[in-house]
Amino acid sequence: MTLLRYLCVGAFLAGCSGATYNSPESLAGTYSGTYSGNDNGSIVLDVDSGLNVKLTATSSFWHTTFNGTGSVGTDSHVSGTGAGGLVSITFVGSMGNGIASGTWTSSNGASGSWTSTRN
Asked: What is the CA angle 88-117-112, rounded to 5?
């Protein structure tokens, strides 16, 4: 019984640690913005109510469209992968309050940051 009591107290304290919970409804939607770094262009993330992400990024430098998929965790962390032409990409970041932002890397060594707002 004592172990159960400690687990309950631990779970309560973890819930009070300042971590922000965003409901799926508050994160779902279309986010539009830009990315920059070794390449730049526009980015659109479509987040459904199941917190699945569809990414479309259009390169101004390589003149390529990158399409990808990913997901948003219960901690509002977003991550995924995609490809365009012969290049694959990885994107990570966070979402909340109508804003999504993070970093990206590609298989050819390019990298940078991205930011978007919910439409």
From this structure: 35
Distance between terminal CA atoms of the chain? 50
Name every residue whose Cβ is closer than 8 Å to that of residue 92 and which is 6 or more positions away in sequence. 77, 78, 79, 102, 103, 104
Structural domain harbouring 97 = 24-118
Q: Which two tokens stand for residue 53?
A: 């992400």
pTM above 0.85, yes or no: no
- Is 12 inside a domain boundary? no
Number of compact structural domains in the chain: 1
Per-residue pLDDT of the chain (119 residues; tens, 9 = 90+): 443 333 333 443 344 444 456 788 889 999 999 999 999 999 999 999 999 999 999 999 888 999 999 999 989 999 999 999 999 999 999 999 999 999 999 999 999 999 999 99
CATH number (domain holding residue 95): 2.40.128.120
| Domain annotation covers residue 71 | yes
